[in-house]
Fold this protein.
Amino acid sequence: MNIADFTAIVPLLILAGTAVVAMVGVALHRNHTATVLISLIGLAAAFRSLWTAAAHARPVGALLVIDPYALFYMGMIIAATMAFVLFAYDYFRKREGRHEEVYILALVATLGSAVLAASSHLVSLFLGLELLSVSLYGMIAYLKSRAVGIEAALKYLVLAAISAAFLLFGIALIYFALGSMELPWISGRLATGYGFDRGLVLAGFALLMTGLGFKLAVVPFHLWTPDVYEGAPAPVTAYIATVSKGAIFAVVLRYFYAAHALESTALFTVFFILAFASMVAGNLLALLQSNVKRILAYSSIAHLGYILVAFLAAGEAGPAAVTFYFAAYFVTTWGAFGVVSVLSTADREADTMEDYRGLFWRRPVVAGVFTAMLLSL
C-alpha cells in the first residue's frame, strides 16, 4: 500500500481510531458526555474525510474498493450513526448505570458497516459483517436490567451464527467453482459463461443470499425481527433498522449486479418470491400488533420487499433507485424511532398505543414529526 491507498481509506482509519480513543478514554476516566463528544467529533471527521477519499478513489488491495458508490453509503452510515449518538445520549442519561461502552460498540459496528459498503472480496464481506454483528449483540443487550433485551440479544446471536454458517458455505462453493473470492475475478469468470460448474455457483449465491437474508430480515428469514426490535433500546433498534440493513443491502447491490446474478432465472425467481412474501407478510402481520416497535419492525420487513422490487425491476438504474430509497428510508425510520426514544422514560419504553393517544395535545411538535414520518413510511 502507498500514501494514496491510505488516503482512500482514511474514513475507515478515522472510525477505527475514534473507537480506540473512546475506549482508552473510558479506561482512564468514565464520563458519559465526554465519550459522546469524542464519538461525535470522530464521526464528523470521518464524514468530512469522505471528500478527501473521493479525490483518491481506487481499489485498495484485493479487499476494498473506494468509489463514489461506497463513499455515498459510508456517508449515509456515518450520518445515521451520528443520529444514534445524539438520541442515545438523551435516552441513556435518563437511566442509572454506566453507558459509555455503547458508543464504542456503535463505532465498531459503523466501521464494519463501512467495510461492507466498500467490500470487493468475499473475505472483507465476512470480516465487515462480523464486526457489525458482534457489536450488535452487545448493543441489543446493553440494558442488562431488562430481561427482554437479553432475550432479544440471545435470539439475534443464535440466528446470526446460523446465517454466518450459510454465508461461509456459500463463499466456499463460489470459491471452489470459480477459484477466487475477488469480485472482479468472479464477475469476469461469470461473464465468459463457461469453464465452471454453473450449479455450484448458483448454489453458492443462493446460500450467500440466505445468509444475507437473515440480516436483511426478508421473509422467510424475518422471525427474529419483531422480538429484537421490541427488546433492544429504542436508539439501538433504529440503528439496526437503518445502518445494519443499509450496509448489507449495499453488499447485495454490488455483488449481485457485478456478478450478473440476476440474469439467472432461478436467482431472479428467488428474489421475486422474497420481495412478494416480504411485502405481503410484513404489512398483514403488522395489522395484528399493538406494540409500536413491533409495528415498525414489520414495516421494515415490508420496505425491504419494496426495495427488492426496485433491485429486480430497474435494470441498470437499480442501484441508483435503491440508494435513493434508502436515503429517504434512513431519515423516516430515524424520525419514527427518534420519537419513540424521546418519549421513553427511565422506567419503560414508549412502545404501546396508549403512549401515543392524545400526543398532539401534550407535545404537538413531536406528534407532528411522528405523523410525518409514519405517513412517509
In short: The two ends are 44 Å apart (CA to CA). Residues 147-178 form the longest helix (32 residues). The beta strands are 58-60, 64-66. The chain has a mean pLDDT of 89.
